[in-house]
Amino acid sequence: MAKNEGKKFEEDFKKSVPEECFYYRFIDNAASFSGGDNVRFTSHNLCDCMTMTSDKLYLIELKSHTGASLPLSCIRKNQIEGMAKINHPQIRAIFIINFRDKEKTYSIDAEKLEKYISTSNRKSIPIKFLEENGIEIIGQRKKVRWRYDLNKFFKEIS
To answer: Staple partner for 114: which of 13, 63, 76, 84, CB 3.0–4.6 Å?
Structure first.
Protein backbone atom coordinates (compact mmCIF):
# COMPACT_ATOMS: atom_id res chain seq x y z
CA MET A 1 0.00 0.00 0.00
CA ALA A 2 1.41 3.40 -0.98
CA LYS A 3 1.93 5.95 1.76
CA ASN A 4 -0.23 9.02 1.71
CA GLU A 5 1.43 12.38 1.14
CA GLY A 6 0.86 13.50 4.74
CA LYS A 7 2.78 10.48 6.07
CA LYS A 8 5.60 11.18 3.61
CA PHE A 9 5.78 14.76 4.88
CA GLU A 10 5.92 13.48 8.49
CA GLU A 11 8.78 11.13 7.54
CA ASP A 12 10.67 13.90 5.75
CA PHE A 13 10.22 16.17 8.77
CA LYS A 14 11.48 13.48 11.16
CA LYS A 15 14.55 12.80 9.01
CA SER A 16 15.26 16.54 9.03
CA VAL A 17 15.38 16.85 12.83
CA PRO A 18 18.99 17.54 13.88
CA GLU A 19 20.76 14.61 15.55
CA GLU A 20 21.29 16.52 18.80
CA CYS A 21 17.53 17.03 19.21
CA PHE A 22 15.08 14.64 20.81
CA TYR A 23 12.14 13.70 18.60
CA TYR A 24 9.04 11.72 19.53
CA ARG A 25 5.98 11.00 17.41
CA PHE A 26 2.84 10.34 19.41
CA ILE A 27 1.11 7.07 18.64
CA ASP A 28 -2.05 7.39 16.57
CA ASN A 29 -5.26 6.09 18.04
CA ALA A 30 -6.42 2.75 16.66
CA ALA A 31 -9.69 4.40 15.59
CA SER A 32 -7.93 6.38 12.90
CA PHE A 33 -7.17 3.22 10.90
CA SER A 34 -10.70 2.35 9.80
CA GLY A 35 -12.33 5.75 9.76
CA GLY A 36 -13.09 5.51 13.46
CA ASP A 37 -16.14 3.26 13.00
CA ASN A 38 -14.91 0.29 14.96
CA VAL A 39 -14.03 1.93 18.29
CA ARG A 40 -16.58 3.23 20.71
CA PHE A 41 -14.35 5.59 22.70
CA THR A 42 -11.38 7.35 21.20
CA SER A 43 -8.81 9.78 22.46
CA HIS A 44 -7.18 12.43 20.33
CA ASN A 45 -3.57 13.51 20.61
CA LEU A 46 -2.88 17.17 21.12
CA CYS A 47 -0.37 17.11 18.26
CA ASP A 48 1.62 14.80 16.00
CA CYS A 49 5.02 15.01 17.64
CA MET A 50 7.38 16.84 19.94
CA THR A 51 10.97 17.91 19.45
CA MET A 52 13.33 19.01 22.21
CA THR A 53 16.22 21.31 21.34
CA SER A 54 18.86 22.34 23.88
CA ASP A 55 16.56 25.00 25.34
CA LYS A 56 12.94 24.45 24.24
CA LEU A 57 10.28 21.82 23.80
CA TYR A 58 8.25 22.15 20.60
CA LEU A 59 4.82 20.56 20.37
CA ILE A 60 4.21 20.20 16.65
CA GLU A 61 1.17 19.47 14.53
CA LEU A 62 2.14 18.69 10.93
CA LYS A 63 -0.25 19.36 8.06
CA SER A 64 0.30 18.74 4.34
CA HIS A 65 -2.17 19.93 1.75
CA THR A 66 -2.47 20.91 -1.91
CA GLY A 67 -3.75 24.28 -3.06
CA ALA A 68 -3.23 27.78 -1.72
CA SER A 69 -5.07 27.31 1.57
CA LEU A 70 -5.59 24.75 4.33
CA PRO A 71 -9.25 23.98 5.08
CA LEU A 72 -10.15 24.49 8.74
CA SER A 73 -11.74 21.04 8.63
CA CYS A 74 -8.18 19.63 8.57
CA ILE A 75 -7.57 20.88 12.12
CA ARG A 76 -9.40 19.26 15.01
CA LYS A 77 -10.90 21.64 17.56
CA ASN A 78 -9.06 19.96 20.48
CA GLN A 79 -5.73 20.55 18.70
CA ILE A 80 -6.08 24.26 18.12
CA GLU A 81 -7.71 24.98 21.48
CA GLY A 82 -5.33 22.79 23.47
CA MET A 83 -2.16 23.98 21.82
CA ALA A 84 -3.17 27.65 21.95
CA LYS A 85 -3.58 27.37 25.74
CA ILE A 86 0.01 26.27 26.35
CA ASN A 87 1.69 28.99 28.32
CA HIS A 88 5.17 28.02 29.45
CA PRO A 89 8.42 29.87 28.66
CA GLN A 90 10.21 26.67 27.57
CA ILE A 91 7.37 25.21 25.44
CA ARG A 92 6.22 26.37 22.01
CA ALA A 93 3.15 24.93 20.36
CA ILE A 94 3.36 25.25 16.59
CA PHE A 95 1.61 24.13 13.45
CA ILE A 96 3.81 23.33 10.47
CA ILE A 97 1.87 23.51 7.24
CA ASN A 98 3.23 22.13 4.00
CA PHE A 99 1.66 23.22 0.70
CA ARG A 100 2.83 20.33 -1.50
CA ASP A 101 2.06 21.71 -4.93
CA LYS A 102 3.44 25.15 -4.01
CA GLU A 103 6.58 23.53 -2.51
CA LYS A 104 6.32 25.86 0.49
CA THR A 105 6.28 25.03 4.20
CA TYR A 106 5.43 27.43 7.03
CA SER A 107 5.43 27.36 10.81
CA ILE A 108 2.98 29.36 12.88
CA ASP A 109 2.43 29.57 16.61
CA ALA A 110 -0.76 27.86 17.72
CA GLU A 111 -1.87 31.00 19.56
CA LYS A 112 -1.65 33.13 16.37
CA LEU A 113 -3.47 30.48 14.39
CA GLU A 114 -6.22 30.17 16.99
CA LYS A 115 -6.72 33.95 16.97
CA TYR A 116 -6.99 33.95 13.17
CA ILE A 117 -9.53 31.12 13.20
CA SER A 118 -11.66 32.77 15.90
CA THR A 119 -11.69 36.22 14.24
CA SER A 120 -11.89 35.29 10.56
CA ASN A 121 -15.02 34.31 8.70
CA ARG A 122 -13.00 32.17 6.27
CA LYS A 123 -13.25 28.39 6.15
CA SER A 124 -9.55 27.98 5.35
CA ILE A 125 -6.12 29.35 6.19
CA PRO A 126 -4.66 31.03 3.09
CA ILE A 127 -0.97 30.72 2.29
CA LYS A 128 -0.83 34.54 2.25
CA PHE A 129 -1.71 34.63 5.98
CA LEU A 130 1.17 32.23 6.71
CA GLU A 131 3.57 34.25 4.54
CA GLU A 132 2.72 37.36 6.59
CA ASN A 133 2.39 35.81 10.07
CA GLY A 134 4.47 32.65 10.06
CA ILE A 135 8.00 31.58 9.31
CA GLU A 136 8.93 29.81 6.11
CA ILE A 137 10.89 26.61 6.65
CA ILE A 138 13.37 26.22 3.85
CA GLY A 139 13.26 22.81 2.23
CA GLN A 140 15.35 21.17 -0.42
CA ARG A 141 14.12 18.38 -2.65
CA LYS A 142 16.46 15.39 -2.64
CA LYS A 143 15.35 13.50 -5.78
CA VAL A 144 11.70 12.92 -4.78
CA ARG A 145 11.77 13.45 -0.99
CA TRP A 146 12.43 16.61 1.00
CA ARG A 147 14.97 17.65 3.63
CA TYR A 148 14.16 20.69 5.77
CA ASP A 149 16.68 23.03 7.40
CA LEU A 150 15.34 22.56 10.92
CA ASN A 151 18.65 23.58 12.51
CA LYS A 152 18.20 27.07 11.09
CA PHE A 153 14.48 27.04 11.84
CA PHE A 154 14.83 26.13 15.55
CA LYS A 155 17.54 28.80 16.02
CA GLU A 156 15.36 31.38 14.28
CA ILE A 157 12.31 30.81 16.50
CA SER A 158 14.18 30.29 19.78
So the answer is: 84
